[in-house]
Amino acid sequence: MPEFLILKCQGAMQAWGGHTYEDYRPSLIFPTRSAVVGLLGACLGINRQQPEQLKKLNDSFDLTVLANPRHVEQRQFNDDRKPKTVALHKITDYHTVLNARRADGGKRDDAIVSRREYLCDAEFTLALAFKDSAEYDLAKVLVAIKAPKYTPYLGRRSCPLQRPLFEAIVGADNAQQALQQIESSGTLYSETPLNNAHALQVRDLPLFAETRRFVTRPVYVLGG
User: Fold this and answer.
1) Hey, what long-range contacts does 193-197 have (CB within 8 A, 24 or more apart)?
2) Which of 16, 54, 59, 120 has the most CB within a 10 Å radius?
3) Structure letter (DSSP) for residue 61
4) How would DSSP label each residue in 136-164?
5) Burial class (CB in 10 A: 0-12, 13-18, 19+), 176
């Protein structure tokens, strides 16, 4: 039976970048493949100047994400009600940026305003299935996330983890069954087709070269 590495991404703020340019940095509502590669790369000690190693890491696993409903406890005295569900929402931060890129790849001479989105009150459970020929296998990645070389964060440096990444190693026939052993409900984002799911085109598959470039891939969404 295949084994899946289960990770938890929990934090007050998260940022999972979608298609962007300098003046607008949106966040998708689930962790992107490029962000997860970066997150694991930080744990392994791989930096941006090592594109070959990042490509090998990217090629090592299949990713499935479950967006969990977030529950918080009632804090009032003598309150025995069930925990309430908090809806995911976004906030926008504003920056001024010098030397921003132009459409032709050059740099602007003036400063621009950059809007950057963050997710709040979000929790995700990730299932990673490692390939038989993986350069970075389950055992190697497990050691790294338990003792990371660089500090991991949830998309941006201003988004620290509120708990360790590691949750469990689960045996299951597929990622959906593996995630159901951890969380009973939520929205599933899968790289492989699922029954009754709809396809979403996401531009988050990294091309590992000197410049940061991405291509589009289908993500299959179920639930929610």
Assistant:
1) 193/220, 194/220, 194/222, 196/222, 197/221, 197/222
2) 16
3) E
4) S-HHHHHHHHHS-SS---SSSTT---SS-
5) middle
Q: Which two tokens stand for residue 140?
A: 């190697």
d(CA 69, CA 187): 9
Q: Are 174 and 65 in contact (CB under 8 A)?
A: no
Taking only the tens of pLDDT, the chain with its 224 residues reads 899 999 999 999 999 987 766 678 889 999 999 999 999 999 999 988 898 999 999 999 999 999 987 654 444 445 555 555 667 789 998 888 787 777 666 787 888 888 889 999 899 999 999 999 899 999 999 999 999 999 999 999 999 999 999 999 999 999 999 999 999 889 999 999 988 899 999 888 877 765 667 888 999 999 86
As a whole number of angstroms, the distance between CA 178 and CA 132 comes to 18
What sections of 71-152 are H helices per DSSP? 138-146
**Token duo for residue 154:** 């949830």
pTM for the model stands at 0.86
Phi, psi of 88 (to 5 degrees): -60, 140
Enumerate residues 6+ apart whose C-beta is below 8 A from 120: 12, 13, 88, 89, 90, 91
Q: How far apart are CA 199 and CA 188, in angstroms?
A: 12
